Amino acid sequence: MAGFAIGPVLFGPLSEYFGRKPVLVITIAIYLIFTMACAVSPTFPALLAFQFFCGLGGSAPNAILGGLFSDIYDDPHQRGLAMSWFMFATTFPPLLGPIISGFISEITWRWTFWAGLIIGAPGFPLLLTMPETYVPVLRQRHEKSHNEKQTTEKSLYGLSAGVVGLAFLPILPGSIIAFIIVFMYSSYYSKALRAELSWAKLEEYRRLPLACIGAPGIPIALFWLGWSAKLSMHPVMPMMSGIFFGFGYLLIFVALLNYLTDAYKQFSASASAATSTLRSIFAVFLPLATTPMYNKLGINWASSLLGLFSLAMAIVPFVFIRNGVWIRANSKFVQKAQ
């Protein structure tokens, strides 16, 4: 997570200087090399160091892909659908990862990393065939060569680690529902824009209503998890909270990442890097508080505390709808992008 926090700050801006392709190729190569290093690490300190570089390399797509889609798609509707497909596709690995690692780590923890390498490595050659998409870099190359190129491994209720991984599966139907809503709203908005309805002409209504719909999903999931996680209830009950989590998570990410891309355009990689770093900082420190918080407050109130924080954060997309025009008008990067 420390690597994930540092990487986007480096690679987002670097992709706007050297281009998207070389930064992606180098960072994914770093990720794959150090994943293999983790599998053969001789000591725990070495494993920690290798894991840092895994996070460093693996964080690049979070910072770069928003800008890459901005390079490719001028039409906000097409760009929104493309990013929605991407976010939907990235829902599956976090669901399958705990299941695979849960079962395979019962043989040896090293196979967790070997499995990740086996799954990830075949996609690397595709990066080598990917054309560069960042226009300023293409322009520089054209001027030089006159040839522009187209471009928790812990058991719960006595369940095994592998079975506990199945708890992530309910996130999938929630994500599917959210994905359907994204398509429905995108079509509805496009029709309203063609009809020249006044509300559709406001940039904030292109993406943010999706986040407003999804925002309550995370608090609902946390409250559900907190108050159904009892020995007297079947484990499936708290697991089902994942439906609301997947629903809220995907809608929020699709809406806000698209909103950043729409607003910052060619600078969207840096904007995405900033948000990814902020998320990763919280992801680094929050686990340090998890064990003492849950030990002191219990599952019910600890989850409810997180739910209350999420409920407070749910107001963010509404604030952007209300004040987004003013915020964008006072951003020098947005003005420069326009």
Automatic annotation (TrEMBL):
What are the record keywords, sorted? Answer: Membrane, Transmembrane, Transmembrane helix
SUPFAM superfamilies linked to this entry: MFS general substrate transporter
Q: Where does it reside? A: Membrane
Matching InterPro entries: MFS, MFS_dom, MFS_trans_sf
| Domain named Major facilitator superfamily (MFS) profile: residues | 1-338
Task: Specify the protein's topology with respect to the membrane.
Answer: Multi-pass membrane protein
- What residue ranges are annotated as transmembrane? 23-42, 48-69, 81-105, 111-135, 156-188, 208-227, 239-261, 267-289, 301-321
Q: Which GO terms describe its cellular component?
A: plasma membrane
Q: Which Pfam families match?
A: MFS_1
Report the GO molecular function annotations: transmembrane transporter activity
Organism superkingdom: Eukaryota
Gene3D superfamilies with a match to the protein in the record: MFS general substrate transporter like domains
Q: Which PANTHER family match?
A: MAJOR FACILITATOR SUPERFAMILY (PTHR23502), MAJOR FACILITATOR SUPERFAMILY (MFS) PROFILE DOMAIN-CONTAINING PROTEIN (PTHR23502:SF74)
This protein is called Major facilitator superfamily (MFS) profile domain-containing protein
| Species annotation | Penicillium antarcticum
